[in-house]
Amino acid sequence: MSEFIVAANAADVPEGKIRLVIVEGRKVALYHTSGGFFATENSCPHRGGPLSEGDLIGTEVVCPWHLWNFNVTNGTTDIDCDVTLITHEVRVEDGRVFIRLSPERPLLPELL
Questions:
Q1: In what order do the strands lie in the sheet with 55-57?
Q2: What would the pLDDT profile of 64-105 be if each residue is shown by its tens digit?
Q3: Maximum C-alpha span of the chain
Q4: Proportion of the chain in helix, strand, coil states, percent, rounded to 5
Q5: Measured distance CA(81)–CA(27) in Å, rounded
Q6: What is the pLDDT of residue 80?
Q7: Are 93 and 3 in contact (CB under 8 A)?
Q8: pTM value?
Q9: Distinct helix (H) and strand (E) counts, the chain
Q10: Is 64 left (phi over 0), alpha (psi -120 to 50) or beta?
Q11: What does the alpha-carbon distance between residue 39 and residue 106 come to, in Å, rounded to a whole number?
């Protein structure tokens, strides 16, 4: 398992916003919700849309390409229970956001 890596300053991601961060060479969408910070892979598993360019509504991110929505706290969607986002562990200390990456997985070929 990877270690926690500094990904951003908490003050740089206002509540209700998403920021693209690069952690160990991987693109990660960092979300600041009213419940805290969450992180997922940046690519939508449907067709690879950049989630950091989507809209954050409460705890749901809406992909800008095909409007699939995902819960950023656990990676699930109501559209297809077999499709989930990779989520990453997040902690905030001394005003900095740390992320521990989860293993990667490819896009689902049946959705391409």
A1: 55-57, 60-62, 69-71
A2: 999 999 999 999 999 888 889 999 999 999 999 999 999 887
A3: 43
A4: 10, 45, 50
A5: 24
A6: 86
A7: no
A8: 0.91
A9: 0, 9
A10: alpha
A11: 18
